[in-house]
Every structure is written in structure tokens, then in C-alpha cells.
Amino acid sequence: MKILLLLLISFNLSATEIKFTSADYDQALENKSTIIFDMESTKAGFITSGFKGVAKSFSVDFKRVGDTFKDVKITIPVSAMDTDIDARNEKMYEECFDFKNNQNIIVKFKSAYLLGFNGIQKGSILIRGKWFDIDLKIDSKMVGGVTLINGSSSLSIKDLEIPDPSIWIASVRDLIELTFKIEIK
Q1: pLDDT tens digit string along 167-182?
Q2: Beta pairing partners, 135
Q3: Which of 53, 55, 63, 80 has its CA 20 to 30 A from that of 21?
Q4: Contact 117/138 with Cβ under 8 angstroms?
């Protein structure tokens, strides 16, 4: 009986890693599965403009038991992050994320969740070699045999101990609005 139960559990447990890749910034913005971070900067003290960054590649790891997702982990290579301006990207890689010593940003869900969940999921994010607690607003559902997971989080540059990316003429707002869409077929 125990062997039969173990076999049933092992067939029902599916560990998966899915990789998403875009050729460039524009494609990453338009993909069905995407990670976007919105930020703002103020130039000369009074002209505020927003900018978007994207992850041109990322992977999602999880274990699925029926409609329950466990051990969800999103890995974003720092080198795959793109703001569509080379000088800003270079500063982001080298100064903000210390790419030479910290090549990935990792987001983990702290607990399992059931497909159809719509609410706050506790998580943690690894930035510059240090873990920080975050809240992720999650909306997941099944549509036409495809699992759709949408999420967002409001993050703080200061709280994540990221060096201030501001330059003398432009100061960057502390708030980072992170959004993601993941489609699993």
C-alpha cells in the first residue's frame, strides 16, 4: 500500500523549469511572459519622466501537485535586464547590482499556492547577495488549458540596499514597480 501511495504521489508531482528568452528590449516588452520594472527620474529638479526596464531572459522553477504550485523560484540574470539605454544599463549592472559578484536576482515564494489564488503571496528576493522579504500580489488562473500567473510588487531601492542610481542631473525615485506575467502551457 505504501509503495502504491508513493507511486501515485510521484506521478502527480511534476518539477518544472521553464526558460523565457527575448531577442531584444521591444520583444521582451511584448511577450506573453514578461518581467517589467517601472521607475521614474526627475531631471533638473522638476521634469519627471518614467522608464521601463525588462528582463530579456528569465527562468521559472516550481513543483506542481495537481493545482498546487510549490517551491516557486524566478531567476533573472542581471545581464538580461535592459532599460533600452546602454549607459543606464551599464550603471545598473556594475554599480546597482554588482554584476561581477552577483550575477542573478532570484525571487522565491515562501509558501505553496493553489491555482486560482488571487491575493498577497509572501516572498523573498535575492539582490546583491542578500535576501529581503517582499509581498507579491498574485492572480493565477487556467484559461483554455494554459496557466496564467500575473504578479506585481512595489519595491524600494533603499530597502533593498541598492546603491542610488541617481546622477547629478537626474534623481531616481526610490519606488520600483515590478510586474510579471507568466504563461505555462
Answers
A1: 777 788 999 999 999 9
A2: 122
A3: 63
A4: yes
Cβ contacts of residue 24 below 8 Å, gap of 6+? Answer: 56, 82
Please state, in angstroms and rounded to a whole number, the distance separating the CA atoms of residues 144 and 129. 39
- Partners of 4 in the β-ladder: none
- Reported as a single tens digit per residue, the pLDDT across 23-66 is 999 999 999 999 999 998 887 777 888 899 999 999 999 999 98
Amino acid at 28: A
Sequential DSSP letters for the chain: -HHHHHHHHHHHEEEEEEEEE-SSHHHHHHSSSEEEEEEEEEETTTEEEEEEEEESEEEEEEEEETTEEEEEEEEEEGGGEE-S-HHHHHHIIIIIS-TTT--EEEEEESS-EETT-EEEEEEEEEETTEEEEEEEEEEEEEETTEEEEEEEEEEETTTTTPPP--BTTEEEPSEEEEEEEEEE-
Residue 47, pLDDT score = 80
Q: Which amino acid is at 64?
A: R
pLDDT digits (tens, 9 = 90+) for 11-22: 445 679 999 999
Residues whose CB is less than 8 angstroms from the CB of residue 10 and which lie 6 or more positions away in sequence, other chains included: none
CA nearest to 122, candidates 139, 106, 135, 141: 135
Total-model pTM:
0.88
Contact 165, 159 (CB under 8 A): no
